[in-house]
Amino acid sequence: MHLTLEEINLLEKRHRANLINSISGIKSANLVGTKSDQNNTNLSIVSSVVHLGSNPPLLGYIQRPRGVERHTFENILATKKYTLNSIHSGIIKSAHQTSARYARDLSEFEQTGLSEEWLNEFHAPFVKEAHIKIALELVEVIPISVNDTELVIGKIQDIYFPSAIYKPDGHLAIYEADTVGISGLDTYLKTEKITRLSYAQPNIPLKEI
After folding, report:
1. DSSP string spanning 151-207?
2. Residue 67: what pLDDT?
3. Is there a contact between 42 and 75 (Cβ–Cβ < 8 Å)?
4. pLDDT for the residue numbered 87
5. Per DSSP, what are the bridge partners of residue 61?
6. Is the peptide bond before 202 cis (omega within 30 degrees of 0)?
7. Residue 103: predicted pLDDT
8. For 13-23, what is each residue's pLDDT tens digit?
9. How far is the CA of 186 from the CAs of 48, 93, 181, 183, 198, in angstroms?
């Protein structure tokens, strides 16, 4: 099958969104936890978190256009603090439900049955049920003019995870924590290790590690 740009642009809006969101492959599945200046907690799902660097340790995600209320993003801009919490198979439905547009004064934690967890006096809440939890401080927001989205960049302040998935060389085996991925807008996938390979160098055969 072949679709040209002109044909893609003619697709019905939701159909086009499903297609383009699926075509990039498996994406990470995380919940962003925030608290407003008025102490209202908020939780939203994102599938665009990317590694931006290890020194300093930076993660980014794509924020959709500001045309409608974005409670999570507004809280991040106001407080500079937020958390990322990995999604596993046991909380998929609750995590997905956070994408519903609740009123500002309604906490997605309460509405979806997930639990707030406060660690190390950090301003923003973590998801108690999550297996991998990251505290971040906002360092930069970069506008992307072509579609009015923004790259939100945070510096890691704290990380929490099961000690069993932390390997001697620093590798974090997220697949051993039942972490799931997302395909498109609404399909959740299990992660399973196929192989882990040695550092690639010219003229040196790869080894499984």
Report:
1. EEEEEEEEEE--GGGB-TTS-B-GGGGTBEEEETTTEEEE------BPPP-TT----
2. 65
3. yes
4. 97
5. 152
6. no
7. 87
8. 999 999 998 99
9. 14, 10, 10, 7, 34
What does each C-alpha distance from 119 to 78, 100, 116, 137 come to in angstroms? 20, 26, 10, 15
Residue that is written with structure tokens 């799902």 in the block = 45
pTM for the full predicted model? 0.92
State the residue for tokens 């599938």: 47
Yes or no: say if 167 and 177 are a contact pair by the CB < 8 Å rule.
no
- Would you state the pLDDT for residue 154? 98
Give me the residue spans of the domains in the chain.
26-186
- Domain range 26-186, CATH architecture: Roll (2.30)
The tokens for 84 are 């990322």
The whole-chain average pLDDT of the chain stands at 94
Exposure b/e, 14-29, CB count within 10 A at least 16 = b: eeeebeebbeeeebbb
Q: In this model, does residue 68 exceed pLDDT 70?
A: no
